[in-house]
Amino acid sequence: MGLAANGSVRVEWVVAVSVAAGAAAVGYLAYKKFFSKDKCCSGMVNLHIQKDNPKVVHAFDMEDLGDKAVYCRCWRSKKFPLCDGSHTKHNDETGDNVGPLIIKKKDS
Ligand code: FES
Description:
GO terms for molecular function: 2 iron, 2 sulfur cluster binding; L-cysteine transaminase activity; metal ion binding. The chain is mostly helical.
């Protein structure tokens, strides 16, 4: 095989590898766009709490709240639905700004 033929084969390989890499990139992006589960779960608020329930609901009687009750709104508390301060770590890690709902009796 001559030098010119060797160079021609090399060019064909470069073209083939480039086309294959481009096709793989397009396929990967199409997969992420249409089939990836990341898309469906990235907006999910509740990551861990009572995932076997279709809807997480808590109810309390006003008379049982006492002078002050602090409820979690970040869904990261280990004491959910009560706030345990986990929102601070969540905010530090994500840049979010969530905090608890505080219900208290008026100062008399
Ligand atoms: S732990 Fe969730 S708001 Fe505090």
